[in-house]
Amino acid sequence: MRRYSIQNKIVLPFILLVTVVILIVPVITIGLFDRKYDEQISWETQKWLETIVDTGYIRHPEKVKEAYGAEVTIVSSDNTVNYTTLPGDWASFAEDMKLHEGRKRIKESNRDFVSQNVMVNGRHYKVIYYLQAYDRLYCLMRPREEIAAAKQWVTLLMLGIAAAVIPLVGLISHLIGRNLTDPIKDLVQFTRKVAGGDLNEQGEAKTHDEIGDLTRAFNQMTRDLRNSRNELIGAERLATAGKMAASFAHEIRNPLSSMRMLAQMVMRKANLSESRRKQSMQYILEEIERIDVIVKGFMDFARPASLRLAPHDLNQVLQEVLDLMEANLNHHRITLIKKFAPDHPPISLDRDKLKQAFMNIVLNAMDAMPGGGTLEILTVRQIASRDSDKVRIDIVDTGIGIPPEDLNRLFEPFFTTKSQGTGLGLANAKRVLEQHGGDIQSKSVVGQGTTVSLWLPLPSNSSPSDSKKIGE
Length: 472
Description:
The chain has helices at 6-55, 61-68, 93-97, 99-109, 145-195, 210-268, 274-302, 314-324, 326-331, 351-367, 404-407, 425-435, and strands spanning 71-75, 81-84, 113-120, 123-131, 137-143, 310-312, 334-339, 347-349, 373-385, 388-397, 439-445, 449-457. By secondary structure, the chain is of the alpha+beta class. It folds into three domains: 6-153, Beta-Lactamase, CATH 3.30.450; 211-302, Orthogonal Bundle (Helix Hairpins), CATH 1.10.287.130; 310-457, Histidine kinase-like ATPase, C-terminal domain (Heat Shock Protein 90, 2-Layer Sandwich). Helix 5 packs parallel to helix 6 (210-268) and helix 6 (210-268) runs antiparallel to helix 7. The two termini are 52 Å apart. The model is unreliable at 463-472 (pLDDT under 50).
C-alpha cells in the first residue's frame, strides 16, 4: 500500500478544494446564467416576432433591423435565400443557420416558430424560425455577441485567478503542513533514538498544542524508563553480586576447611614425621591453588578482559589443549578421537581465552564420563553465505547426558549440576565465543551423551567449494 505523508494529506485536499471552488463552481454558475439568459432572450425575441407580425413590419425587413437592431433572413422551401439583411458569403448559409434542424423542430412541435442558437460569419445569434405560407421561413436573428464575449471573459478571468491562486494555496498549505509535520518528524526521530536505547535523549517541545503535549509526555516517559532501567541494573548487579558471593563462599569453604585441619594437625603434632609434614604442606598448597583457580574464574566472569586478537591455526589451538589434557584423559580411561578439517585459513582469535573455553568444555565432558568413554573432537567448515563462512567445532562425549530441563540453562552463570563447581565455566565459554563473533549450542540425550557445538567466523576471503570434514 502506497504511503502518503501527513503533509501531502494536508496540501492535496487544500489544492483540490480551491480548484473546485475556482474552476468548477464558476463554470456551473456561468452555465446556469447562460441558460437563464438564453431563456430570457428567447422569450423577448418571440415577443418581438409577435409584434412584428401584428404590426405588418414582417414585410419590411429593413425597418425591423432599424427598430430592433436584429437581422432578418427569408428563405424559400428549398432553403434558398430570398432576402437577408446579413452581409457576407451565403455559400454555407443553410448549414450555418441550421435550417433543416429548424424545420424539423417546427414540424415536431406543431408550432409556427421555434428558437435556436447559431453562428453565422463568425458571429453568435439567437434565431426565431417563423413558418410562413408556401413553406417559407422567416428568420429573426438577434445578436448574442455581448453575452458570448462576457462568457469568454469570465472564463478567462477564472482561469487566470486559478493560475494565480492555486500555487498560492499550495504554498500556504505547504507551510501549514510543514508547521504541523516538522514537530512530528522531530518526535519520530526522538522515539527512534529512545527505541535504540538512548534514554538520555530529550525531545524539544517546539509547539504549545497537542503535539507539544505529546513530546512532553514522551520526555516524561523517557525519564521514567531511564530511572527504571537504572534501578533494574542496580538490582541485577546486587543480585549477581549476591549470587557470586554465595557461590564463592560455598566453593572456598571446603578448601579452607581442609587447609585449617591440615594446619592444626601440623601445629599440634610435634612428633609428626617430616614426610607427613611435607605431604600436609603439599595438600595445603594444592588447596591454595584450587582457591586461586576459583578466584580467577570469578574474576574472569566479573571483569572480562578485552580480546588480544592475532591470526592462529584453530586446529593447532585445539591440539595444544588436548596435549595438556592427554594424561588426564588416559587416567579417566577416555578414548580420544580427532577429526580436524585441514583447509582452515588462519583465524583472528585470542589464543589463551579460546584455549580456556575449550578446556572448560572438555573438563565438563570428562566429568560426564566417570566410568570412561569416548571423546570425539571434530571441525567442520561451513558456507553460511558468499561473504560469511564459518567453522564448527563439535565436542562429543558418550557420558550420562543432560536432562532436557537443565539443557536450556546450561550456559547460565552460576548454574551447575555438579556437587563441586562454580557454574561459570560454560558461561565464560559462551561469552568468549560471542566476543569472537561466534556462538555455542548443545544437544544431549540422557544415557547416550552430549554434543557441544561451537561456531567461529572465518575470514571473508576464504571460499572453499563446500563443507568438508575429515574422516567422512
